[in-house]
Design goal:
InterPro entries: Ammonium/urea_transptr, NH4_transpt_AmtB-like_dom. It holds the Pfam family Ammonium_transp. This protein has 404 residues and is mainly alpha-helical. The protein has two domains: 291 residues, Ammonium transporter AmtB like domains (Ammonium transporter fold), CATH 1.10.3430.10; 84 residues, no CATH class. The protein has 15 helices and no strands. The longest helix has 38 residues. The N and C termini lie far apart (64 Å).
């Protein structure tokens, strides 16, 4: 009887830490997966993505064990990642890069230049930024797992560095946009810069000084802004810039710990080590570099393997006619203005897998418009209002070989 009582008391004592860590890790695993969804948007087969998101859990869980589990080799080496710059964002950003590369660009995306496509809703994009911004405070502050003892001090510090970093990134985004747009401001540059700054400060949020967070955030925001056109130059079509925001900025964020970390002893968050700029040696920076490379290689390779296997059963790329009609309508049956289907409907006519009567929207995607013009020019005229079930992937020179 006594043993049972002791066991129950032990379970109650462990209940809080176990449940809180489970919820935290569940949220982190979800985040690492949803990061990839943005890079696959507008041309990924929804069923294939659902299967990928289920399997993608392994992409996050293994490196999370490396850095946070007592058994992990990075943990034993003394690597630091308090809020997930590496285990969450770098893993997600690396997966996003591979997924975008395997899917290929959206139809007509780079046929006439690399300028960003017009935003569907700047208001919704800003709303999403604010939701992430405030949510980031909870994640960064909560990454010390408590407020007892000295924890509340580091939790408060994490909140301040998070806000300061976003200030640094936001300023860089405004300057970058002002120069790039010749005196005007692009809301996408500001969003990318602020998110990049938040990503970069997350890993060391509780061990930076406030002014250091501004510097780290400014560099992270700059990498996010410059990375987006760089990947477009490589013809890696990432609609939301996940590779830059969550990849490049996170890589910097993991390295920044090796430069700016305060060697505190109250919670032993740094295992007694300091960053290179704080009087420490190069060991911590070397370990952080190893962690960044390990996260990137693991996430990239496993993502490639998962998508390659899934593609054998469910094509990861949508059919060309489905992409032109729009995933909102084809995959989800959403019928509203702005879906982007009316031009596609008039050009494509009927299709055996699509109810043409369901569409009544106005299209605005320039890449799709060019693809449809090319299709109409090559085809000459439709035969009795249908495509005779012929494939239409020839309407653009964009390669979608991974979907075949």
């Amino acid at each position: 009887m006594s043993n049972q009582t002791d066991s129950r008391e032990e379970d109650i004592d462990e209940m809080g830490p176990v449940f809180s860590k489970f919820l935290f890790q569940l949220s982190f695993a979800t985040t690492a997966t949803t990061i990839v969804s943005g890079a696959m948007a507008e041309r990924c087969n929804f069923r294939a993505y659902c299967l990928f998101s289920l399997c993608n859990t392994i992409v996050y869980c293994v490196p999370a064990g490396w850095i946070w589990g007592s058994h992990g080799f990075l943990h034993k080496l003394g690597a630091i990642d308090i809020g997930g710059s590496g285990a969450v964002h770098l893993v997600g950003g690396s997966s996003a890069f591979v997924a975008a590369w395997m899917l290929g660009p959206r139809l007509g995306r780079y046929d006439h230049g690399r300028e960003p496509l017009p935003m569907g809703s700047p208001t919704n994009a800003l709303l999403g930024l604010f939701m992430l911004w405030w949510g980031w405070l909870a994640f960064s502050s909560g990454s010390v797992f408590g407020v007892s003892g000295h924890k509340w001090k580091f939790s408060a510090r994490a909140a301040v560095t998070t806000i300061n970093a976003s200030f640094g990134g936001g300023v860089v985004g405004l300057i970058y946009s002002y120069i790039r747009k010749k005196g005007k401001f692009d809301i996408l540059d500001l969003i990318s810069a602020v998110l990049g700054s938040l990503v970069s400060v997350t890993g060391g949020c509780a061990i930076y000084r406030p002014w250091e967070a501004i510097v780290i955030g400014a560099i992270g925001g700059g990498l996010a802004c410059f990375g987006i056109p760089f990947f477009d130059w490589l013809h890696i079509d990432d609609p939301v810039g996940a590779t830059s925001v969550h990849g490049l900025s996170a890589f910097w964020g993991v390295l920044a710990i090796g430069l700016f970390a305060d060697g505190e002893t109250l919670l032993n968050l740094t295992n007694g080590r300091s960053g290179l700029f704080k009087g420490g040696d190069a060991y911590l920076l070397g370990v952080q570099a190893l962690a960044a490379v390990s996260f990137s290689l693991w996430a990239g390779f496993i993502t490639f393997l998962l998508l390659w296997i899934i593609n054998k059963f469910i094509p990861i790329r949508m059919e060309a006619h489905e992409e032109l009609l729009g995933a909102d309508l084809v995959e989800h049956g959403i019928r509203r203005s702005g879906v982007g289907v009316s031009r596609a409907l008039s050009a494509l006519g009927s299709h055996p897998n699509f109810d043409i009567e369901a569409g009544s929207a106005i299209g605005t995607n320039p890449g799709h418009e060019m693809a449809l013009e090319k299709f109409l020019k090559d085809k000459g005229s439709l035969r009795n209002g249908n495509l005779n079930h012929e494939p239409i992937s020839h309407i653009t020179n964009t390669s979608i070989a991974w979907a075949k």
